Each structure stands twice: as C-alpha cells, then as structure tokens.
Amino acid sequence: MPHNKSVTEFIMLGLTLDPVKQKMVFIIFLVFYPGTVVGNLLIIVTIKFSRSLGSPMYFFLFYLSFADICFSTTTAPRLLADVLSSKKVISYNECVTQVFALHLFGAMEIFVLILMASDRYVAICKPLRYPTIMRRQVCVILIILAWIGSFIHSITQISLALKLPFCGPNLIDHYCCDLQPLLKLACMDTYVINLLLVSNSGAICSSSFLLLMISYFVILHSLRNHSAEGRKKALSTCTSHITVVILFFGPCIFIYTRPPTTFPVDKLVAVFYTIGTPFLNPLIYTLRNAEVKNAMRKLWSVRIMS
Predict the structure, then answer these.
(1) Cα–Cα distance between 238 and 221 in angstroms, integer?
(2) What is the DSSP pairing of strand 9-12 with strand 89-91?
(3) CATH number of the domain enclosing 24
(4) Where are the transmembrane segments (predicted)?
(5) Could you say which residues of the chain have pLDDT below 70?
C-alpha cells in the first residue's frame, strides 16, 4: 500500500482532452483492440489444431500471440472505458496491478521474440543438429524460463512502484499506469528509482534488441551458402521477424532508456508498442507466411464443411 494514505486513487488524463480527438481515439481503438484479439486468437487456434504447424517456430508463435492478447488487454479496454467516462479514475491498487501486468506480458513478448530468433538461428546455421537441439522438451523448458524471467522482471518493477510515496497531485498524464508517469507524482527524490528502472527495463530492451539484431545479421550472412529456394523461404521468415522486432523495440527503447524526463510524444509512442505491435503481429506472421495461410485455409474449410 502507499506510504501516504492521502492518495488512494489517480485520475488519468488519457491520450487527449480534446472531445473530438477523444472520439477519434475511441473509434481507432475499437478497431485495433478487437482486431488484435481476433487476429491473435486465429493464430493460436490454427497452431493448436493444425498438424502441419508442429515445429518449434509455431510453438513459440503460439505464445507470442498469447502474450500479444494479454499485453493489449492490460491497456486497451481501460482506455476505451476512460474515453467514454467523464471521470477517469483508477485506484492505487488497480494502478499497481496494471504496472505489473504491463511489464509481465511486455517482458514475455521480448523473451519469446528472442526464442524465435534462436530457433531460426539453429534452423539455418545448424540445420543437421536442429531436431536434437530444438526438441519439444527443450522448447517447453525455454517457455517456462521465459515466464519465470518475465515474472521476476515484473516483480522488480512493482517493488519500485511500491516504494513511491504519493501525497500530492494525483493526475497521471498518460492513458495507463507505468513507472515513468508515476515517478513524476511521487513526493520524494526519484533519481535512484529512475536509475534502477532504466537499468532494469532499459537494459532488457536495449540488450535484447542488440542480441536479436546480431543474431539476424549472422543468420542472413549464413544464407549465402543456401540454395535459392531455401534462401527465399528463410529470408521471408527472417524479414517478418525483423519487422516485428524493430516495431516493438524502437518505441520501448525510446521510453525506457533515458533520464526521468517525459515528452508529450511519449503517450503516442506507448500506443505504438502496447496496441500497434500486437495488432500488426498476426498480419505480419500470416501475410508473410504461406504455411500459416495454408493451415488456416485447411483448418477453417474443414470446420465449415463439418
């Protein structure tokens, strides 16, 4: 609970205070959020029930889609409700819960993207050893470790948030609770906490991005020795992965790797990775992937026929 009982709830300022823009925000999110849920559910169901998508890559994609749904659900429904209500109030406990969920599923997304890159690296650079390295048990253990890592990261964020005393203004200049906007409201010197925040979230974002970019560079470099057909298929998969990585990590690095200053553009950048990327992932992974498209067609035509 907060150190100072005077603040038990916060008031969200949302993305904009302009009533016309608020209507636009509502319409955009009303398209994006259900689109995100439906698109990712389609991928989850297709992978679950399709025999042709049994490889580790689709095993990880299953969890990426699951993380996408949860990640966007931590912010979008609340934002939609706030746009419609005149008083955008969130209790202290709800706010802390949102911080926890945001970082849990955000970190999970990062770890799954790393696993997908590792899977592509082994498949392309060590093809003969691929079946033994990426066994089912190994993939399951890696996913469990990803969940544990995400949970540890999230608990760290929460422990930082719980240290903050709030005794003054309770206006959060954002559409969701995160540590940056909360740090601005704390009635204490937040320099050290911000340093811890940057060294946790910032380090995870930057080092993961660097790791992913290096691995894809190595993968693309090793494609020289492959046949034209193999090269084309691998390139298609890797470019879709690289697109997702840049779209997700660009905004994350912008938000989490800098001193405690907030910019007006922060909220828009946050929309990009909390709502935009989860919406685009299904499109990128299905439109660029013939296997997924064929499996979907087969599965749904069988469902409709029966």
Answers:
(1) 12
(2) antiparallel
(3) 1.20.1070.10
(4) 24-45, 57-76, 96-117, 138-156, 201-223, 235-256, 268-287
(5) 1-5, 259-262, 306
